[in-house]
Design brief:
Blueprint lengths: L5 E4 L3 H12 L4 E4 L3 H11 L5 E3 L3 H6 L6 E4 L5 H10 L8 E4 L5 H12 L4 E8 L1 H7 L2 E4 L3 H14 L2 E2 L2 E2 L9 H29 L5 H11 L7 H11 L9 H4 L9 H12 L4 H14 L1 H6 L16 H31 L5 H7 L10 H11 L10 H24 L4 H14 L5 H12 L3 E2 L6 E4 L7 E3 L1
Parallel strand pairs: 1-2, 1-4, 2-3, 4-5, 5-6
Antiparallel strand pairs: 6-7, 8-9, 10-11, 11-12
Helix pairs in contact: 1-6, 8-12, 8-13, 8-15, 9-10, 12-13, 13-19, 15-18, 15-19, 16-17
The chain binds nicotinamide 8-bromo-adenine dinucleotide phosphate (NBP).
The site of nicotinamide 8-bromo-adenine dinucleotide phosphate has 22 residues, from helix 1, helix 4 and helix 6.
């Protein structure tokens, strides 16, 4: 009987395209899906693309796999993933590998990895970005799990990953949940990037007075420069599109209420637990949340605001480009800070430059810019923040006047720019010689005797606020 090098269970859009990608690269693929109609449909439609071995039952599927077995799960994250693991794990032997390519929460991945490790099974939580098209033509792949499992899986995953300058957008991220953690932060950064692009559009529309088709041209131009990226490219496409039914700009017929669920929210929740200020990602998640509160927005429709009208001057688009680039540097610096903190907390030893390298292609945030980040970590792997890398410091310095102007203009016109504003506030907070946190600490000591530290000597202190205000050691 012919054996398969790898198997995929869960053949909805992602699993199906991943299986096809593997087959197109010459790997024989065993196929399984809870509802076997999907398995049949795949073989009928795409059977000619490579060697597929369809299986109707978990037993037949497992029996079709070469040893050690490589089994990829591509089902809905959460309960379904646990259900599939419970179904398949008893059929596996020590040394076999289960790859979870779904969008799992990294804490679930840590739990599953620990439980399966006890049985000698490698559980490889793997972040996969690039959506449906990426899964078929080359995604960015972020596998966690043991280094041993990567030896067996890496060559296959690198084969099907996107390539940039001949380098696969796939590398072993680190043990247990590291892969899903990095995928989570990737998605958080994606939220921030999209929010900054949305604010740029809003400013060009309502401050510069440009029409969507004109803004599409601005984005097309930006896409030939340092902002070149998939997200900028598709923004131009969307803005240039006209709604067939009404003849209006497509962006004007789409309901302006976004959802925030899953990975963006997890990124912020995890950042709070780790104590990492990812304000750019948080503002992006909150911006979607605000947009979705239709009743709240309706109730606030008549709140007073300034008159809105296009501002004079043709330099606004250039200023917005600078503000966007500077804010983007901040958002990415915050995301990488979170990966650094997660890596330290969980002992993952993640190579930050390698993460930037595997995001250069295949994934939603793919961009020329990521090569700069890779280079920054190559120059100084221990850098506490990307902002102090020479290239980024220069770009921020060059952008800062325009950045402040743009945030000021937005405030004057009543155009919300939470992403731009918070990025600038973060930048100014890090730069500040003194922060008003000193006053905060003093207040806390006043009402709660929480103590404070002093600038001029070690130790903690408390002032007897209710008494004679002498200072005692805390
Ligand atoms: P879905 O997330 O829509 O899941 C559908 C698949 O899960 C089907 O194969 C379905 O089987 C299976 N399934 C469910 Br639901 N419950 C099951 C259970 N209890 N036991 C066994 N199988 C079960 O598919 P998708 O959009 O292809 O995404 C797959 C994974 O990849 C998800 O975790 C997703 O978050 C992740 N992801 C998706 C994208 C994307 O762009 N779509 C990108 C990156 C990652 P059935 O056919 O029998 O109902």
């Amino acid at each position: 009987m012919e054996m398969a090098r790898i198997g995929v269970t869960g053949l909805a859009v992602m699993g199906r395209n991943l299986a096809r990608n593997l087959a197109r690269h010459g790997h024989s693929v065993a196929l399984h899906n809870r509802t076997s109609a999907r398995t049949k449909a795949l073989v009928e439609e795409f059977g000619g693309e490579g060697t597929f071995i369809p299986a109707d039952t978990p037993e037949a599927f497992v029996a079709a796999l070469e040893r050690p077995r490589r089994l990829v799960i591509m089902v809905k994250a959460g309960g379904p993933t646990d259900a599939v693991i419970d179904e398949f794990a008893p059929l596996l032997d020590p040394g076999d590998m289960i790859v979870d390519g779904g969008n799992a929460n990294f804490t679930d991945t840590r739990r599953r990895e620990a439980a399966l490790r006890e049985r000698g099974i490698h559980f490889v939580g793997t972040g996969i970005s690039g959506g449906e098209e990426g899964a078929l033509h080359g995604p960015s792949i972020m596998p966690g799990g043991s280094a041993e499992s990567y030896t067996a899986l890496g060559p296959l995953l690198e084969d099907i990953a996107a390539k940039v300058d001949g380098t696969p957008c796939c590398t072993h991220v680190g043990p247990d949940g590291a892969g899903h953690f990095v995928k989570m932060v990737h998605n958080g950064i994606e939220y921030a990037d999209m929010q900054l692009i949305a604010e740029s559009y809003d400013l060009l529309r309502h401050a510069a007075g440009l029409a969507p088709a004109e803004i599409a041209e601005v984005f097309r131009t930006w896409n030939t420069g340092r902002l070149e990226s998939y997200l900028i490219e598709i923004t131009a496409e969307v803005l240039a599109h006209t709604d067939v039914a009404t003849g209006r700009p497509f962006v004007d017929v789409v309901l302006d209420q976004a959802e925030q669920k899953g990975t963006g929210r997890w990124t912020v929740q995890t950042a709070l637990d780790l104590g990492v200020p990812v304000s750019g990602i948080a503002e992006a998640v909150f911006a979607r949340s605000v947009s979705g509160h239709a009743g709240l927005r309706e109730a606030a429709q008549n709140l007073p605001g300034p008159a809105r009208g296009p501002v004079a001057g043709s330099g606004l688009a250039d200023a917005v480009e600078k503000a966007l680039y500077a804010s983007k540097i901040v958002a990415y610096a915050q995301g990488f800070h979170q990966i650094q903190a997660g890596s330290a907390e969980y002992g993952w030893d993640i190579d930050l430059g390698a993460m930037a390298a595997i995001w250069r292609g295949g994934c939603i945030i793919r961009a020329r810019f990521l090569d700069r980040i890779r280079a920054a970590y190559q120059a100084d792997p221990e850098t506490p923040t990307l902002l102090t890398d020479a290239h980024f410091t220069e770009a921020l310095g060059d952008a800062q006047d325009a950045w402040r102007e743009v945030v000021g203009t937005a405030a004057r016109l009543g155009i919300p720019v939470p992403g731009f504003s918070t990025a600038l506030a973060y930048y100014d907070s890090l730069r500040a010689d003194r922060l008003p946190a000193a006053l905060t600490q003093a207040q806390r000591d006043y009402f709660g005797a929480h103590t404070y530290r002093r600038v001029d000597r070690d130790g903690s202190f408390h002032t007897l606020w209710g008494g004679d205000r002498t200072e005692v050691t805390g």
